[in-house]
Design a protein that fits this description.
This protein is α+β, with helices and mostly antiparallel strands and 158 residues long. It has three helices and six strands, in the order βαβββαββα. A six-stranded antiparallel sheet has the order 1-2-3-4-6-5, with helices on one face. The relative contact order is 0.12.
């Protein structure tokens, strides 16, 4: 898919001051994928973790009903195509008092090429779990577990 550079919200703001929040008016790069109407904007910010690219992903026809959702694979592809395959990005699920969910706009934070998360699921970054103790199963839970194990005896549990 091909991306076309577009007029950024920061440029629009400099001519027509229409954005009332802070971060949108700072989005100084913007791309549109004409095939499907996907719009990506970004701004570079400084953090305690170094420079981070704050990225928004939406559709040109902005919706508020969930019809503009993107799959994880779509967001990964967008990150790879515009910011590079060798960069880590995160999507944040905030505490309730920090939640803003008024439109189908998705935020990624893309880190510098040299940045790596200090945790993960691959062998070289694997961190052993902290033993929190086990919670004993109730008699009903033990019976249900036994049923599942008996059902799948000799095969893999799915």
């Amino acid at each position: 898919m091909s991306w076309i550079k577009s007029v950024s919200p920061a440029k629009v703001q400099s001519i027509f001051p229409i954005y009332h929040g802070q971060w949108m008016s700072e989005m100084d790069r913007c791309w549109i994928r004409e095939e499907d109407g996907v719009c990506v904007c970004s701004r570079l910010i400084r953090t305690d973790w170094g420079k981070v690219e704050h990225v928004t992903i939406t559709r040109k026809s902005l919706s508020t009903d969930g019809s503009g959702d993107f799959t994880w694979a779509e967001k990964q592809q967008i990150k790879d195509e515009l910011f590079g395959r060798n960069r880590v990005a995160v999507e944040v699920y905030p505490k309730d008092d920090r939640l803003v969910d008024v439109a189908d706009v998705y935020h990624l934070w893309v880190f510098d090429k040299k940045f790596n998360l200090p945790f993960g699921i691959h062998t070289k970054e694997f961190q052993p779990a902290i033993n929190r103790g086990s919670i004993p199963l109730s008699e009903d839970e033990l019976l249900k577990l036994q049923e599942v194990l008996n059902k799948h005896k000799g095969g893999d549990i799915q």
